[in-house]
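Subgroup meeting minutes
Present: P.N., E.W., G.H.
Scribe: E.W.

1. P.N. recapped why we're keeping a running log of single-chain structure predictions: easier to compare across weeks, and new members can see raw inputs and outputs side by side.
2. G.H. added today's entry (432 aa).
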Amino acid sequence: MTDNPVLIAGGGIGGLATALTLHQIGVPCIVYEAVRELRPLGVGINLQPNAVRELYDLGISEEDLDRVGVPAREWALVGLNGNDIYSEPRGGLAGYNWPQYAVHRGQLLMLLHDKVVERIGPQAVRLGSRVTGYRNNPDGSVSALIESADGAASEVKGALLIGADGIHSAVRAQMHPAQPPIHWGGAVMWRGTTWAKPIRTGASFVGLGTHRQRIVFYPISHPDPRTGLAMINWIAEVTMDNAEGWKQRGWFRQVGIDDFIHHFDNWVWDWLDVPAFLRQADAVFENPMIDRDPVPTWRDGAVALLGDAAHAMYPTGSNGASQAIVDARVLGAALVEHGVTPAALAAYDERLCGPISQLILRNRGAGPFGLLNMVDERCGGTFDNIDDVIPPAERAAFMAGYKAAAGFAVEKLNTAPPTIAQGARVRAARTV
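Output recorded in log:
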């Protein structure tokens, strides 16, 4: 096998899942991460059953995931008059062979990091090291250009380079220098967590409101046995006029509750007082809902994109992190089949780039929250019986279409063989 490792730009969820996958199939790798210290930052995300399946196959256990989140039991949309638009069970309750998990993003990141260090060693993750570019070499290898936190520049040779460096990816910028700027569709999100008692099933994902103004919330911890309180992740969202583009400095900033709570002043029901709920948050962060236009390929020679660097998408489908994990596993399967070669990257690109590019555009259309658009168009958002507005069969078909596009249709997922067969390894004879 080549002495050159696979280089991974970015130590986020996708980059660390890639490192664990490469180690599992016998491929040496190094992760280069720009931050000097990894910390459990962020709020809640969802891991769909297709991603949980892959984590289980990586040796991430149910016990591990229970430490960073909670299995989801229900997904529900509720109209402004408090009546249900749609609800369905999730995970095992919906017939999947794997659960769906609502987790704290930062704690999941630290879990993956600890597994990488435990299995590969502390030198597998180089913090304070940003990949700023690359060069495809005549011998089929690649050289990554590295800038350290103190400003020093270096160059590292690798068998392949995987650009998992996020929506602001330097690897993608070099691969597609003419790409349009980050796309903002007009929605602004405020994110936070509040300790409160879970509602409905106790592990429900609830979307409440309209397509122009809504709040989404779900627990990301098990309830405290003494108080009954769980950490509830929430996102408050309002769609605004984006004709002049995003005017705030930066894409992510901490704000005060009073900066936005007026949008939800009258959102009070006997089962939820939204203003009171939001005011209990420890901290609130504002960011626009952004993504990037799809690109025609994720590959350039011995370089490939993965995760948000490849397909940054609106969070409306709760599958950005899930897709990054699936990316890592599909990449690993391609390496098992084709060796550590550019041919493997071409197979990975052929498998995912086109379908996931369509998913980016589908999420711009509100993803599964598109049901809120339909309700608004047909009745202005107020109804007594949702069946009179959107028949049950039409609602079910809408959701089934999204799950199929996102790769977690229950029957197809349950019957699919493992992405990487147990014990599969890259053979030295097929590695360059």
